[in-house]
Please model this.
Amino acid sequence: MNDMDKKTKYLVRELWILAWNASVQHAAIYKPGAWKNQRDQIDTFKNKVIDYIRERIIPQYKETVEELHHCENISGLIDYANEVDTGVLGKDGYKYGVAQKVLNLALKYYWCLGQIKEPPHCPVDKIVIDKTVYRGRVNWTQILKEKEYLGIISAIRALARKEGCSIAQWELNNYERRQP
Model:
């Protein structure tokens, strides 16, 4: 493996850590006590879900993926995650908001690295929602249905159109992480 391959592999590994943590840190997807008592099961669950995204979903985005197909990928991810649950997920299972966040964030990272085509959507979280008409009305961690998610995407699309760009480009231009 040449030096550039090692560097890219390192960055991708780090980006998966960031994407996963960003998708679950405020989402309360695990059963009460699971984080303390079922750490191995959580790790197994996380690794299976990440492998599924990396091996089955990400390669599709080497070509342009339309919105409908992207939403099918999010729904497929939810189905897969609920199927491989090692007994750690809470009553709502793997939520739509969490699934879209990990997938959309991973796609953003891969796109920024030049590994895939531009994704159809962007990661939806509090910072992005607060730039839309949904500010204070929707918590991304509580999104359970595609319809709720697509309402937010529609609001983002309207903002992107005003700036003459795509949803992914709009988010890249406007996303500002809070300082640590």
Observations:
- The radius of gyration is 16 Å.
